Amino acid sequence: MPTGGESVTSAVWFGVGSRAEDKRINGISHFLEHMAFKGSLKRPSARLISEEVDGFGGEFNAGTSKEWTNYYIKARSGKVESALDILSDMLINPLLDPKEIKREKGVITQEIAMYEDTPMAKIGDYFENLIYKGTTLGWDIAGTKGTVRGMARADFLEYRRRFYTPQNTVVTIAGGVTEKQGLELVERYFGGIPRAKTAKIDIVKPMFDAETKTFKKKKKTDQTHLIVGFPGKAYGVSTRYAESLLSAILGGGMSSRLFLEVRERRGLAYAVKPVTDHAVDVGYFGAYSGTKPEKSAECREVILDQFYGLASGKYPIIDKELIKAKEFVKGHLALSLEDTEDLCGFYAIEELYTGKLRTPAEVYSAIDKVTSEQVTSLAKELFVEGRVFTASISPK
Question: Which residues contact 343 (CB under 8 A, 6 or more apart)?
C-alpha cells in the first residue's frame, strides 16, 4: 500500500482472538500478544527488542480483539526492513521464557484491575458479557485473574501451533514504500515459514433471546455509566454503509441527534456516543452515556426515544441531514487514512473478515448511493423494543 510520506507502518495480523479460546485459557490471545515482546531468538530479552526499536525512533505495539490479533512497528521509511526483521523474529521465534511468563502474569492482572477501576472503559465489557451471554464473544479479552494465573508455557505453544499459521496471517505495509519493495521484504522475512493447517474455530452464535436483558454493577462512582443497545449486523454485510450513516445521524459530532438532545437541550450528560460491534456473524448497535445517577433512567429513555423515533418516522431523516452525515463519514475516513497505522487496519480487517479489498474511492461511492429510506429501514430492523439490552455501572 504505497502512499508516500516519511513514515511506514509494518503490521502482522493473525485471524484469531479471544473468541477462539476455551474457559480454562480465557485471555491467552491477549497474554500471547504481551509475550511476543519479551524476547526472541535473535533478541533474547524485552530490553534488546525495545532498545533496537528506540534506536531508530520507532513506535511499536500490539492489539487483541475477539477475532484478530495484530503487532506493528511504525518508523521512518528507511527503516522498514529493520521493522520487519524485528517483527518476524518476535512472532516466528518467541522464547516464551517461563520466568517471563510468570512475571507477566502480574502485569496482566494489574491491567485487568486497571480496567475494573475505569468505569468508562469497563462498561463495554459488561455490555458484551450481557448481550453475547453464553458464548465466547461475551468473555473479556484479557481473561480473568484466575485464568491468567493458571496459564503455562505449553498452553502458549499449543495455541501458536493451532492458530499462528501462514494461512492465518496477513502482513500489511503502508507509507513510504513501493509495492515491489514491500513484497520482496515480506517474502524475505515471512516466506520461509512451513505451511501448517489452521485449527477450526467452533463458532457459537449468540441467540439474543435471554430473559434477562439488564445488567447493573454497583460501584462507588460519581456518574452512572450506561450502554443501551440492540442486536446488530455482522461485519461486511450489505447494510454496512447505511449503518455508518445511521451512526453519524444519531451520534456523529456535536450536531448529531443524541448530542443535541441528551447534552445540549437537556444537560443530561457530557459524553454520549454510538457504540457498535461487528463480528464475523453477529454484532450490536447502541449508545453510551455517562450521566448523574438520579438522571440515568431519563437519559436511557431519551436515547431510546431517538432510536425508536428515527425507526418509526416520528423523527424523519431530512435531505440536509443525510448529506451532512455522508460528508461526515467520508471526511472522517479520509482523515484516518492519512495515518499509516490506520491505513494498515483499513485493509487488513477487510482481508481477514471478507477476503476482499475495498479502496477508499469505492467506499465513498457506496456511501453516496445510500438513501434515507435505506437508513430508516435498517433502523426499523435494529431498534425493536423487546430486544433492547442495558448495562450500567452506578453508585445506586
Answer: 1, 3, 9, 174, 175, 337
**What residues form DSSP beta bridges with 70?**
13, 63
Closest C-alpha among 186, 147, 152 to residue 35: 152
Residues 321 and 385 in one domain: yes
Q: Is 298 a residue of the active site?
A: no
What is the extent of the structural domain holding 286? 214-394
- As given in the structure block, the three cell numbers for residue 159 are 495455541
Mean pLDDT per 10-residue segment, the chain (396 residues):
78 98 98 98 98 98 98 97 98 98 98 97 98 96 98 98 97 97 97 92 89 94 98 98 98 97 98 97 98 97 98 98 98 97 98 96 98 98 97 95
Q: Are residues 270 and 157 in the same domain?
A: no
Q: Is the four-CA dihedral 74, 75, 80, 81 of positive or negative sign?
A: negative
Residue 130 and residue 147: Cα distance in Å, rounded? 20
pTM given for the model: 0.95
Question: Pick the catalytic residue: 21, 33, 261, 321?
Answer: 33
